[in-house]
Each structure stands twice: as structure tokens, then as C-alpha cells.
Amino acid sequence: MYKRITSSILCMILLFTIIPGEPFYADAAPKETAKILNDTLNIRKGPGLSYGIEAIARKDEKYGVIERNKDWVKLDLPGNRTGWAATWLVQIQSGAEEETIYSNAEDVRIRKGPGTSHAVVGTFPLGKQAVLVKKQGDWSNISYNGVRGWISSRYASSSVKDSEAKNAAQRPLGYITASSLNVRSAPSSASSLLGSVKKGTEVAILKSEGTWLRISYSGKTGWVSRDYVKSGSLESQIKTEQTGVVTAASLNVRNAPSLTGGLAGKVLKNEQVSILEEKYSWTKIRFNRSQTGWVSSLYIKASETGSQKEKTPKNSGAIRLISDGTNIRSSASVNSSVIARGKTGQTYTVLSLQNDWYKIKLSGGRTGYVAGWLAEDAEFGKTVNRPGESKSLKGKTIVIDPGHGGIDGGTSGSGGTLEKSLTMKTAGYLSGELQSEGANVVMTRSSDLYISLSSRVTTAQLRSADAFISLHYDSSSNKTVRGMTVYYYHSSGQKLALPIKEELIKNTRSADRGVRFGDYHVIRENSRPSILIELGYLSSITDEMTVNSNSFQKNAVHGITEGLKDYFTQQ
């Protein structure tokens, strides 16, 4: 009896050991595999960098995935071993035969659902590969590095080659204008230095972030200051520029349009140069292919080479429409037939600039023309004015009022920025640009002095100012508040505020807090067209850093100047 019971128990134990449990990938294909992305990868004994190394895997090797633990996956290793790998260093793939796609844009957003209203759950970096799960309309469901979600199909290609080609065609080009420009690992001057690029080097612009650009050059990528990158191809820029010939035996090139400007080089008689700009009796030239500077206009004889009717525009290579129902025509004329209509915000690749018309690329390999005054450069704003439009500031009296001063410091930022000092800096830049346009500029203060509000108003009245502009920087208890606001009190000020605000936002890309009514003494008691501008929030760490930069100051001043031109054109 005892032997019979014992035999039955042994049979049952043997039976249960034969019945398979969950597959351990010995006899079945894994549901998922992990492809190694690094040249070598440490496979660890547990899900964390603190665990010891179990094995070392090589690039492109594949292992079955047993389980997941946050950012780690447990892998089935040879010899009945297991180990853990970080998900960001492997590519998770389905066990079934799968279709792969590649990102053709920078950091494509992965969303929870097929639409822009769904939350972002991750990003799909440029050139990376993902598993295509399914498609739904214009959206693709993908699996990338353990993240499952949806991306717009327009940002994906079926092969690496197609991805690279599409991305290359979409990238705006630029070239370096500094003699040697530092390339950094992140958009910050405190980030590590990756190297440098020389003047004249052509680069692809991958991404814009504040005052920084991410560029691609010689097979490398990195971040540089946007102040020293000129948009467009250097070659096409040179080809389309007006040329001139040096008539002096030897002519000094200076870094500013003045005899006090430092020497930037020399050019010799009969040397051919490109004419970039003219200011009073000075001409800005390009010489030695990539160097620029100012020379006396007396010794430059201008000439034109090539066709001036059709040329590559000096812009980012794309335009954005600024109104609904924009006519796209068959040729560069308002009398030509309409072949399509566009909506506000639509962007198009620019093929050339013919007179005041953009030649653009349409779907199906077609081309069309858009009037330049109905579009703006996708990166730099409006660049073409309506024919016959006058924007001269010559002879206009502009009173610039740098806010605060002396014992009145105004607000201050966490980084130590004083409002009274920053308004003085901005006013100095603005005065210089307005004077170069021929305006008669009057400053309510030119140093760190306290000036009463009534004295500031009196200055505008006595000078019969065509425009009064009071410059300020704002503050808020809410440290996240950013952007700029333009205030007016009288209707004449509102007419002045609207175009200046538009150009300020267009040139600085700051957060737009609009044009508002403001009960401030300098504009309330002022009978001249007057506005008060809050150019940013010193209470915001981001805004404080931005407004202190030379690029912001330059762009803000240019925006105010262009806004004034628009204002006087409408009068």
C-alpha cells in the first residue's frame, strides 16, 4: 500500500515538471527583442547602474526581453543567464516581422493619440529608427525605445536615405560670420566646448532656441550663437550681391562706418568687392570672399553683374503667409491667373525672389508666385514691402525716454540687473539706429540721472516730437510671467503702439502680451503721440537672461525702428 501511494506521488511530481509554464524563450520566439545601439553595452545584474556587470553586449546584437522595470529591461542572455539593460541604450522590437520608419525632423513629438490635442509622451529624434505599428489617416502609431504612441506621418520616412534626403531639403542653410565661432554641447555659454568653426563655413541650421542655433557642419553638430550665423548660402549670397571695384591704390577697411572704426583689413586698386550696404558716405563691402567691413564710398565704383531680376532671396529659405485667401499666381504679376489660395500661417519653400514676388514650391512639383508684401520670412519676419511704400524716418523727431535713473532704480532681476541701467543701454542702441535712418533723436536722459516725469513730458512738448517712446522692463510676483507689453493712453498713442508691437514680436519672438491702455504719467500728460513699452520681465530668470543679450537688444531696437517706419507710412 505504501509503495503504491509513493509511486503515485512520484508520477504526479514528474507529470507537473513536464507541463510547461511561462515560456522562457527556449522553445518559443520572444514577444519582444532588444537591439543593442552602442558599440559596447554593459548588461547589469539588476535594473540600475549601481548593479554589477553580468555581461558585455555588442552593437546590433539582439536579445529576448523578459520583463520591464521603469527605464530598464531584463534580457535573456546565452547560457541560461539574464541581465538588465537601460531602455535608452537599446531599441525594443516586436518579435513578429515588423516595418520600420525613420524620423526626418528634429525631436518629433510622440503623442498618446492621433492628433495634436493629445498629450506628448516622448520624442522621436532625427534619423532614429522606430517600429511602425499601424497608420490612421495622417498619423502613424510607432514603438520607439519602449515608448508607444503617435506621430505625424509627414515627419517619418521609410528608409534612412529618404529621411536624410527629406531632412536635408528642409534644413535652412547659413554661414559663419565670426572669424572663429565656438561650438558648444548645449544652448548655453556655460556648456562644454566641442570645437570651433571658421568664418565663411557653410552650415545646416537644425534647431533654434532663444539666441542659440543648433548647426550641422562637417558631419558634426553643436550649438552656436545666432548673432554670428547669416542665413542663406554664402555662394548664392555672393552671386546675387551688387559688385564694385576699388579705385584707390590702397583702401583701409574699417569695422564701423567712421574714421575712428578699427582696421578690418585692406583692399587694393581694381579689386572686386561685394556691396552690402550704404550709409551716408560709407559703403559696407565683402572682400576676400568672407570678410566684411566699411570703406569710403568715394573709392568704390559700383557695377552690376548677372541678372538682378531673379535671385535667391537672402532669407531662411521659407515664407509664411500673413493673411487668409492669399492668391498664389502663375507668374510674378497681380494681373496673372490665380492657381491656388493659401491661409494664414501656411509655409512654403522659396525657390527665388523675382522683383517683389516669391517664387514658391507647390505640391505635385508645381511652382507659383506670392506677392512679397503678403508673406513674411518664416524665421526673420517681413522682408518685402509693397511697391511705392515709403518708410523713411528722415527728418522725424523721436524722443526716447529711458525709464528711471539716478535714485530711482526701477525694478531689478534675481541676476542683479537694474532696470534703470538696462533701459539706458536699450535707448543707446535705439538712438544709434534711428540716427542712421536720418531721424532727429532726443533723449530725456543720457546718463544715470534722476529726471522727473513732468520734465520727460516737457521734452516731448518742446521738441514737437513726432513720437515719444518710454522704455521700461517689467516685474511680477509670478516668476513664470514673461513677454512684452506696449501701453498707450490717447488714441494717437494707440496708432503708434500697434505697428511697433507687431514689429517687436516679429523681431524678438518674445511672448506677446499685447497693446493695452495704461494710466502712466509720461503718456497720460503727453499731447504728442506717445507709448510706454515693457520689453520683458526681470522677475523671470529666462527673460532676464534674454533681455541682457546683445542679440535681443539688437532685435528689439530693430523692431521699434521698423514699427516707427510702418507708423509714419500710415500717416
Automatic annotation (TrEMBL):
Listed CDD domains: MurNAc-LAA (cd02696)
UniProt keyword list: Cell wall biogenesis/degradation, Hydrolase, Signal
Signal sequence segment: 1-28
PROSITE patterns in UniProt: SH3B (PS51781)
Domain SH3b: residue ranges: 31-93, 98-160, 171-233, 241-304, 311-378
Superkingdom, taxonomy of origin: Bacteria
Protein name: SH3 domain-containing protein
Organism: Metabacillus flavus
